[in-house]
C-alpha cells in the first residue's frame, strides 16, 4: 500500500475531506492546506516522506505535475457543482442571460457544453495552459466583457482588481469523494504493477535462459544476468544499442519486420563464447501495435559432454570440420536464404541434403552445419562417392572400420551422393530410418549414432523419378534440403569473389593489375559453370598470363573461349529450358539436338536436364 496525500488551498476543502473520511475509511494518509506559491516545496517534502500519490486541484495540481514526477489525481468539478455555482451567479447579477466566464485549467471541469441552454446564460470558458497563465486567462475574460468570473484564488483576485464580481470555484464533497476513489484505484494498480515487476525481475534473475527487453525500434533496454553471462558482457555495455549491432549474426531486415508488423516471431541461430544458442524475438503487441519485444536465447546442449568426446573420436581420428558460416560469400539475397535454412537445419540431428552445381561450396557448407550443430565436438568425415568403385562402396562406408564407424558420434558427409550404388543406398536407408550400421557383408548390424549429410550436383528428386536413386532413401533423407545457388544467380557474391581472387593472385605473384569496366562486365556476364572453383582458377591464369597492367574485355573473353569452349553456351541453353519461356525452350532444344547431331543423351547433358525431360519437350514442340 502506498501513501496518498491531499493538498488543498482552502480550509473548507479540508473540512469536506474530513467529513468524507467519517463516512468511509479511504486510505488517505495525510491532508494539508498549502499556499499556491508553496505547492512545489510542500509536494517535494511529501515525496521525501514517502508519498506515492498526491491529490490536488487546479494550479496546484498543474505545478506538482510540472515540477515533480509523482502521480497526481486532480479534483474535477462535477456538473452538479458547476450548476450550483452558475445558479448563484445568476442570483448575484439578477438579469436575463448574463455573460459568465469560467477561468481555470481545462481538466478541472466536467462537460459544460449545454449550460447556455439549460441555465439561459452566455457561458465562456477561459483555460490556462502551457502558453497562457491564469492571470492572462482572467484578464482576457475581463477584456471580453464578462459580467461575473468563476474561478480559483488567482481568478478571483484578478476579477477583484478589475472590479468584476466573482465566485470562488468551491466544491461539494462529491468531487473530493470521486478523487479519493480514483486515487485508491491508482494506488492498487501501482501496487499490482510493482508486485508484477518484482516477480518478473526475480524470474529473469534466476532464469536459465538469456533474456533481453527491447523497445519498438530494436534498442536494448535491459538484459538479465544469464544473458550477460552468455555474451561475456555486462548489461551497461549493450543497453542503448540496437540488437543487430550486438548480434551481427541476426538479420536486421527480419528483426525490423517482426518489430514493425508485430504479427510474427523471429528465430535464428547464434554462437556466443563457443556455445550454440537458439534465439527468439517475440513482439509485445498493445492495441495491434508492437511497442517492444522480448529477445531470448536458449543454449543448445550437445548430446555428449564435449570433454569426453574430444578425448575419444575427435583426437583419436584427427577428424574435424574447419568451416564457419562467416567463411561463405553471402552478400546476395539468394545465398542469405540458403544460409538461413542451413543454420536452422544445423539444430536438427536429421539427415540434410545439399544440392549445388560443380564448384559451389557444398563441402564448406557441410562443415559449417557440423560445426554449428549438436554434434560439433564429434568427428567430421567426408567420402567422395565419385572416387570409389560401386563394388567397394558398401565396405568402405559401412564396413567394420568404414567411414560410418569412424564418424560415430559426429557427421558423415557423402559428397557426390548421386554416384552411390543401390547397395550403398539401401544401407543408408537403414542408417537413416533404423539408426543401424549394416556391415559390408550386408548381414551384421550395429547401432549407430551418426549425423548424415548428402551432397549432390544434380537433383536427387529427379534421380528418384528416373529410378536411379532409391525413392525410400530420398523421402527419408530429403526433408531438410538446402540448395546452394550457382554463382550466376548471386551477382553480389560473384563481384566479391572476383575482387578477392584478383587481390589474392596479385599478392601471391607480386603483381599489380586492374580490370577495366569492360573486363568487369565480361566477367559478370559469364555463367561460370564451375562456379567458385572455376572463378578462382581462371583469375590465377588471367593474372599469370596478363601482358599489361590494365586487363580489358578482349583479354577476358579470349581466355574464357580458350579455356572453356562451348561451356557457357551450353549452360545458357539449359537455363533457357528451365526458365519457362516457350519460345526459348523450343529454340534451346533445337540447337542442342543440332549441336550434338541428334544425340538425345548428349543434348540432354548439354541442357542440364534428364533424357525423360528432353523427350517431353520434343513431343511438346513436335521435334520427334
Polypeptide structure, described:
This protein is α/β, with parallel strands linked by helices and 624 residues long. It is 48% helix and 18% strand. It has 28 helices and 22 strands. It has a five-stranded antiparallel beta sheet with strand order 10-9-13-12-11. Strands 15-16-19-14-20 form a five-stranded parallel beta sheet. α7 (153-162) links the parallel β7 (148-151) and β8 (166-168). The longest helix is centred in the N-terminal third of the chain and has 33 residues, at 173-205. It is elongated. The chain starts with a strand and ends with a helix. Residues 303-318 have low confidence and may be disordered.
Q: What share of the residues does DSSP label as strand, in percent?
A: 15-25%
Oligomer: single chain
Anisotropy-based shape:
elongated
Query: Which bin fits the share of residues in helices?
Result: 40-55%
Overall strand count: 22
| Unreliable parts | 303-318
Report the major sheet.
Answer: 5 strands, antiparallel
Amino acid at each position: 500500500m502506498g501513501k496518498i496525500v491531499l493538498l488543498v488551498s482552502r480550509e473548507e476543502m479540508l473540512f469536506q475531506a474530513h467529513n468524507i473520511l467519517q463516512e468511509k475509511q479511504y486510505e488517505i494518509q495525510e491532508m494539508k492546506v498549502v499556499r499556491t506559491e508553496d505547492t512545489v516545496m510542500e509536494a517535494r517534502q511529501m515525496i521525501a516522506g514517502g508519498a506515492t500519490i498526491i491529490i490536488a486541484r487546479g494550479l496546484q495540481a498543474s505545478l506538482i505535475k510540472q515540477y515533480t514526477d509523482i502521480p497526481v489525481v486532480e479534483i474535477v468539478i462535477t456538473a452538479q457543482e458547476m450548476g450550483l455555482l452558475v445558479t448563484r451567479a445568476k442570483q448575484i447579477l439578477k438579469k436575463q442571460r448574463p455573460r459568465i466566464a469560467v477561468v481555470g485549467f481545462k481538466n478541472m471541469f466536467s462537460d459544460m457544453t449545454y449550460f447556455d441552454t439549460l441555465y439561459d446564460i452566455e457561458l465562456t470558458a477561459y483555460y490556462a495552459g502551457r502558453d497562457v497563465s491564469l492571470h492572462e486567462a482572467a484578464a482576457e475574460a475581463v477584456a471580453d466583457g464578462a459580467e461575473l468570473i468563476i474561478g480559483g484564488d488567482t481568478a478571483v483576485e484578478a476579477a477583484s482588481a478589475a472590479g468584476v464580481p466573482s465566485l470562488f470555484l468551491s466544491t461539494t464533497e462529491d468531487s473530493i469523494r470521486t478523487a479519493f476513489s480514483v486515487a485508491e484505484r491508482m494506488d492498487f494498480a501501482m501496487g499490482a504493477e510493482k508486485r508484477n515487476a518484482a516477480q518478473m525481475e526475480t524470474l529473469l534473475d534466476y532464469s536459465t535462459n538469456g533474456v533481453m527487453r527491447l523497445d519498438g525500434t530494436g534498442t536494448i533496454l535491459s538484459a538479465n544476468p544469464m544473458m550477460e553471462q552468455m555474451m561475456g558482457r555486462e548489461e551497461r555495455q549493450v543497453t542503448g544499442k540496437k540488437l543487430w549491432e550486438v548480434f551481427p549474426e541476426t538479420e536486421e531486415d527480419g528483426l525490423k519486420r517482426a518489430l514493425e508488423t508485430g504479427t510474427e516471431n523471429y528465430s535464428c541461430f547464434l554462437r556466443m563464447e563457443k556455445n550454440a544458442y537458439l534465439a527468439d524475438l517475440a513482439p509485445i503487441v498493445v492495441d495491434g501495435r508492437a511497442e517492444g519485444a522480448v529477445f531470448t536465447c536458449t543454449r543448445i546442449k550437445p548430446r555428449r559432454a564435449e570433454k569426453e568426446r574430444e578425448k575419444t573420436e575427435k583426437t583419436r581420428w584427427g577428424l574435424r570440420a574447419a568451416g564457419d558460416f562467416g567463411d561463405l560469400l553471402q552478400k546476395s539475397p539468394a545465398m542469405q536464404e540458403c544460409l538461413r535454412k542451413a543454420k536452422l537445419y544445423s539444430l536438427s540431428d536429421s539427415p540434410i541434403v545439399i544440392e549445388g552445381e560443380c564448384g559451389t561450396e557444398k563441402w564448406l557448407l557441410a562443415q559449417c552445419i557440423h560445426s554449428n550443430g549438436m554434434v560439433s565436438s564429434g568427428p567430421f568425415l567426408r567420402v567422395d562417392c565419385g572416387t570409389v568403385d560401386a563394388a567397394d562402396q558398401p565396405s568402405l562406408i559401412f564396413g567394420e572400420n568404414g567411414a560410418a564407424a569412424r564418424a560415430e558420434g559426429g557427421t558423415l558427409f557423402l559428397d557426390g551422393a548421386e554416384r552411390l550404388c543401390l547397395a550403398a543406398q539401401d544401407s543408408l536407408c537403414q542408417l537413416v530410418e533404423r539408426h543401424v550400421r549394416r556391415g559390408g557383408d550386408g548381414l551384421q548390424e550395429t547401432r549407430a549414432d551418426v549425423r548424415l549429410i548428402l551432397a549432390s550436383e544434380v537433383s536427387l528428386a529427379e534421380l528418384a523419378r528416373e529410378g536411379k536413386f532409391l525413392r525410400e532413401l530420398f523421402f527419408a533423407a530429403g526433408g531438410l534440403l538446402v540448395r546452394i545457388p550457382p554463382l550466376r544467380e548471386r551477382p553480389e557474391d560473384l563481384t566479391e569473389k572476383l575482387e578477392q581472387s584478383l587481390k589474392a593472385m596479385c599478392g601471391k605473384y607480386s603483381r599489380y593489375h586492374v580490370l577495366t569496366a569492360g573486363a568487369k562486365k565480361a566477367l559478370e556476364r559469364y555463367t561460370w559453370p564451375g562456379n567458385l572453383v572455376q572463378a578462382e582458377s581462371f583469375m590465377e591464369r588471367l593474372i599469370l598470363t596478363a601482358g599489361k597492367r590494365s586487363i580489358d574485355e578482349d583479354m577476358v573473353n579470349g581466355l574464357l573461349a580458350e579455356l572453356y569452349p562451348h561451356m557457357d553456351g551450353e549452360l545458357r541453353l539449359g537455363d533457357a529450358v528451365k526458365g519457362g519461356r516457350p519460345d526459348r525452350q523450343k529454340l534451346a532444344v533445337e540447337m542442342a539436338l543440332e549441336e550434338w547431331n541428334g544425340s538425345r543423351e548428349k543434348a540432354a547433358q548439354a541442357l542440364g536436364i534428364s533424357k525423360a525431360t528432353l523427350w517431353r519437350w520434343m513431343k511438346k514442340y513436335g521435334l520427334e
